[in-house]
Write a sequence for this structure.
């Protein structure tokens, strides 16, 4: 399984540079907001964490539909399905999700504090937004795996994946933004929202791979 | 060990492609599946590998013990696609499959030497020609041990010399008590192999 993780991370970094595309898209989304809403620093600081979250959410959807499609096209997916007895398919999916997250989503989390500066977010807010992105974005990848597995046989499934998984990722977005806001706005608490976010990630870490495995097994 | 299929039938997209197909393969035996395009050769192999469900019939691997409980666990599947990543080197691909599939046998470099690719293990898989890719995929059969080889047009793209080398590999596998089920249009150079002729659509 470690071999699978290393292979997937290596592929993610070496081929296509999906990480850079995601980071540039994230940058584009965050950079145009101040032009759109105007130079009101207080307003930008207030909506900053939310914009970071929306940008990261959209950027992490890029490339998600290739999660299983690439393996299906070169026949690797068949071998992974056959190896089900040795490595449970859900576990294989889980490891692939972790590798996808490491190669494509972790760079987004890493640049989030920098992009937060564009939005005049205070240092505590930056730290909170980055921390919530770190624990919340894996949930989006796990939900995305289900969508990617469902459209694995379709040649142009990219938009369909986004439409399928966005409703499911709304709770993650709500609690991620609530926790980041709780860290800066005084009466709102940080910890309860943050803990629910952690719970969501753990929940989808179990449900997502299991559902994706089921979809892959019945793909043809 | 014995692989047996009884009254097997397969369908694709709700249409029955073949039906009532029975055969048995014992240790050291090979079965060649022949027939025109669309006769269901690939479907039969995918059913054997557990990738598709049979529409009817029974499929079993007897005598595999705990190590090989069913065909899926005991088989190498070499399909139309080579299951290699173009961005990784040939050797990286093979080492990954060896670690993923378990039951290590030859090292990646030994397997590459056996298929005559010892000089290009360091090249990205994407740089290889069609025949070389196929040979690298054949090397995957050697890095991990599986008693049953399911081969779908295994010699597609191979030159005459590589075909001969591959026939020798298959004979070696059979001598060790392995089994081979191969779908093919071309003679594979296996003497005494059984043949299952699939007749095309039964309408």
């Amino acid at each position: 399984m470690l071999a699978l993780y290393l292979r997937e991370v290596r592929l993610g970094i070496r081929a296509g540079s999906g990480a850079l595309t995601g980071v540039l898209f994230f940058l584009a989304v965050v950079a145009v907001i101040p032009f759109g809403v105007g130079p009101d620093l207080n307003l930008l600081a207030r909506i900053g964490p939310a914009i970071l979250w929306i940008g990261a959410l959209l950027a992490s959807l890029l490339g998600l539909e290739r999660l299983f499609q690439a393996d299906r096209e070169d026949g690797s997916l068949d071998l992974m399905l056959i190896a089900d007895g040795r490595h449970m398919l859900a576990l294989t999916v889980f490891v692939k999700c972790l590798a996808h997250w490491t190669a494509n989503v972790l760079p987004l989390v890493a640049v989030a504090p920098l992009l937060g500066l564009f939005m005049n977010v205070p240092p505590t807010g930056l730290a909170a937004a980055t921390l919530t992105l770190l624990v919340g974005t894996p949930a989006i990848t796990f939900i995305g795996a289900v969508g990617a597995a469902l459209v694995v046989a379709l040649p142009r499934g990219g938009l369909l994946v986004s439409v399928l998984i966005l409703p499911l990722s709304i709770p993650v977005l709500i609690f991620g933004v609530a926790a980041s806001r709780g860290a800066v706005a005084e009466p709102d608490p940080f910890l309860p929202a943050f803990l629910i976010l952690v719970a969501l990630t753990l929940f989808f870490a179990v449900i997502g791979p299991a559902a994706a495995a089921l979809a892959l097994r019945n793909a043809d | 060990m014995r692989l047996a299929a009884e009254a097997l039938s397969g369908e694709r997209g709700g249409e029955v492609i073949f039906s009532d197909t029975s055969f048995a393969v014992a240790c050291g035996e090979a079965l060649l599946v022949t027939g025109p395009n669309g006769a269901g050769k690939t479907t039969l192999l995918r059913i054997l590998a557990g990738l598709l469900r049979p529409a009817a019939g029974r499929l079993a691997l007897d005598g595999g013990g705990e190590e090989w409980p069913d065909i899926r666990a005991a088989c190498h599947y070499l399909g139309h696609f080579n299951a290699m990543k173009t961005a990784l080197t040939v050797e990286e691909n093979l080492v990954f499959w060896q670690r993923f599939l378990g039951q290590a046998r030859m090292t990646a470099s030994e397997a590459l030497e056996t298929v005559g690719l010892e000089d290009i293990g360091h090249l990205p898989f994407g740089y290889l020609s069609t025949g070389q890719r196929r040979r690298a995929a054949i090397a995957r059969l050697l890095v991990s041990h599986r008693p049953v080889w399911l081969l779908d047009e295994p010699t597609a793209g191979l030159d005459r010399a590589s075909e001969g080398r591959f026939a020798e590999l298959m004979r070696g596998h059979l001598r060790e008590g392995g089994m081979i089920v191969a779908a093919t249009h071309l003679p594979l150079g296996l003497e005494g192999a059984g043949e299952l002729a699939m007749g095309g659509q039964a309408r």
